[in-house]
Fold this protein.
Amino acid sequence: MASSVMTRKGQITIPADIRRLWSIEAGDRVEFLRDGDRVRIVPVGDVVTRTAGALRRYRSGPAPTIEELKEAVANAWAAEAMRHMEP
C-alpha cells in the first residue's frame, strides 16, 4: 500500500507507481470520490483520452497488427473496469 504526506497547502503526491499504472501525468485532473469513510482518487477523462498515445511506438515503425490493436483496446477497457471497482 502506497502512502503520501499532505503539505500545509493541502497538497499530496500520488506515488509514482500509481501514476504510471493509470498514466497520470502533470496537468491531468483527478476526482476525489467519497466511499463511506474512505476517499477514492480516480483519473478524470474518458478511456480514449487516457489511452491516447498507447500505440505511439508505431509512429516511426510498422503499423500495429489487428491482434495488437485488440490487445490495446482490451487493456484500455480492463483499466476502465478496474477504475470503477471497489478498492
